[in-house]
Amino acid sequence: MLEHGAAPPASQQAEPNPPVGGLGARLMRRKPVERLVAEGGRGEGGSLRRSMGMWQLTMISIGATLGTGIFVVLGEAVPDAGPAVVVSFVIAGLTALFSALSYAELAGTIPVSGSSYSYAYATMGELIAWVCGWCLILEYGVSVAAVAVGWGEYLNELLDGTLGFTIPDALAAPPGDGGIFNLPALLVVLLAMAFLLGGAKESARANTVMVAVKIAALILFCAVAFTGIRAGNYTPFMPLGMAGVSAAGATLFFSYIGFDAASTAGEEAKNPQRDLPRAIMLSLIIVTALYCLVAAVAVGALPWKKFSGSEAALASIMKDVTGQDVWAVLLAAGAVVAIASVVLTVLYGQTRILFAMSRDGLVPKVFSTVHARTGVPRANTVIVSLFCGVLAAAIPLGQLADATSIGTLFAFALVNIAVIVLRRTRPEMPRTFRVPLSPLFPVIGFALCLWMMGSLQFVTWVVFGCWMAVGLVLYFAYGLRRSRLATAEK
């Protein structure tokens, strides 16, 4: 491994980028892996600090993943798939697994903060890297808002069960869902921002506590709701056919987007080459097992037709099974903590991706300015938090979840390609984890991502197309000329 900030020896230099010439050559310029690693951690005015071990990295991935699908999106997926929503979780999990294998290999080979954006930059060129980074902004930034919307639902459940009142609909739901402004969604994003501004190590500690609370809440749900399971609730198992299962799986893929969050901490991990692959795979296994268990118990305890699309579905099931409010209150309390943890860790990932893009010159320098005392990109964190908070307060959950899923799937597809490209162009590079049966598994991962994307609604594709168009305009107007690779070539 290179010493921090050291230039790689000539024998390890990557093949040079194509010579400066036409537009095509500039769009395809690649950033050598060694340069990505050598620049790791450095920002404007300071550096990120290596303070996280494997346990903390695993908790980041679990924190970013566990909660969204079960606490928030389950109520919307069950009406599409019926009891077969368990199969939908498995399909979404398998899709995530093949991509997770590719993430694990690249995270150990290119241990930097940019996640799939940096992997694409090293293998497929600047334009593809920009497209991937733009998808990650959609994936992370918008998912923060989507999860924050669901947080308000469980907060009202908690307030109703403990204090006997709820936040008025006008202040607890966005326009289009019967409200004017979703104040709780904004508040949870601002709370996460406050933790992040305190430092990465402090945020990781808070997240570990919150992850423990959310796992305990889900185990409590399974123990209580299990007593209400009725065999008849599982029949017919697939009432809407495979099309419904596929559609629910595409929506539930939103539940898995956080497993790659550990890869955004590549420049703050103590031993990234060893720990990042392990954290990614371990977190995905734990999350998938819990998702399938909770979904199986939920549809067994409540007939699938009674799932109304409420973001607080699990709390409602607890109340129906026991006839007592106390269990629903306990679950709601766990969900409030759980979803806050998702907001915290996904928001963290978004800031680190923008940090990497800014360091490369593709977005303004303000996103890579690091505070010397805390080692945190302060301005980046504040800007992203305010944007996500306003988005959460103004946009309904369903639209956000589907838009996030398509951006995630596209980025994952690119990661599977990146593994194949790097194996062919840099076969001599040391790899602490290797995707088995490559290139077969990356090809399967790529195909599954495309299949899941095809299951999403047409309006989601329209939104995605508009998002990509805006991103390309920004790249050609700003990033193409201001890229650090571009300025180095002049």
From TrEMBL:
<feature type="transmembrane region" description="Helical">
    <location>
        <begin position="379"/>
        <end position="397"/>
    </location>
</feature>
<feature type="region of interest" description="Disordered">
    <location>
        <begin position="1"/>
        <end position="25"/>
    </location>
</feature>
<feature type="transmembrane region" description="Helical">
    <location>
        <begin position="180"/>
        <end position="199"/>
    </location>
</feature>
<dbReference type="Pfam" id="PF13520">
    <property type="entry name" value="AA_permease_2"/>
</dbReference>
<keyword id="KW-0472">Membrane</keyword>
<feature type="transmembrane region" description="Helical">
    <location>
        <begin position="459"/>
        <end position="480"/>
    </location>
</feature>
<feature type="transmembrane region" description="Helical">
    <location>
        <begin position="127"/>
        <end position="151"/>
    </location>
</feature>
<feature type="transmembrane region" description="Helical">
    <location>
        <begin position="326"/>
        <end position="349"/>
    </location>
</feature>
<feature type="transmembrane region" description="Helical">
    <location>
        <begin position="403"/>
        <end position="422"/>
    </location>
</feature>
<feature type="transmembrane region" description="Helical">
    <location>
        <begin position="211"/>
        <end position="231"/>
    </location>
</feature>
<feature type="transmembrane region" description="Helical">
    <location>
        <begin position="57"/>
        <end position="78"/>
    </location>
</feature>
<dbReference type="InterPro" id="IPR004758">
    <property type="entry name" value="AA_transporter"/>
</dbReference>
<feature type="transmembrane region" description="Helical">
    <location>
        <begin position="237"/>
        <end position="259"/>
    </location>
</feature>
<dbReference type="InterPro" id="IPR002293">
    <property type="entry name" value="AA/rel_permease1"/>
</dbReference>
<feature type="transmembrane region" description="Helical">
    <location>
        <begin position="84"/>
        <end position="106"/>
    </location>
</feature>
<keyword id="KW-1133">Transmembrane helix</keyword>
<feature type="transmembrane region" description="Helical">
    <location>
        <begin position="280"/>
        <end position="304"/>
    </location>
</feature>
<protein>
    <submittedName>
        <fullName>Amino acid permease</fullName>
    </submittedName>
</protein>
<feature type="transmembrane region" description="Helical">
    <location>
        <begin position="434"/>
        <end position="453"/>
    </location>
</feature>
<keyword id="KW-0812">Transmembrane</keyword>
